[in-house]
Design goal:
Elements lengths: L7 E3 L2 E3 L4 H7 L7 E5 L5 E5 L2 H16 L1 H7 L2
Antiparallel strand pairs: 1-2, 3-4
Length: 76
């Protein structure tokens, strides 16, 4: 699916409006959350947010922060 969307002013921000086809493809509806992540080629990827994945990412970031020196040594 390739969509060309226009940026629109939303309050003090700029946003895009996802058409019904994109929402159906993502299997999301109004009020759901989506995640935007960096792609390896510099692109952005939009995907539905899953609560369990968010919690796992928070735990992983906490572990990396607390053990950053140990992880740095192990990476050598």
């Amino acid at each position: 699916m390739v969509l060309e969307l226009k940026l629109r002013k939303v309050g003090n921000s700029v946003g895009i409006i996802l058409p019904k086809e994109a929402l159906a493809h993502l299997k999301v509806t109004e009020g759901d959350s989506v995640s935007v992540t960096d792609g390896a080629d510099g692109s952005l990827r939009v995907s539905p947010t899953k609560a369990d994945v968010n919690r796992q990412m928070e735990v992983a970031q906490d572990v990396m922060k607390r053990y950053r020196h140990t992880l740095r040594e192990l990476a050598k």
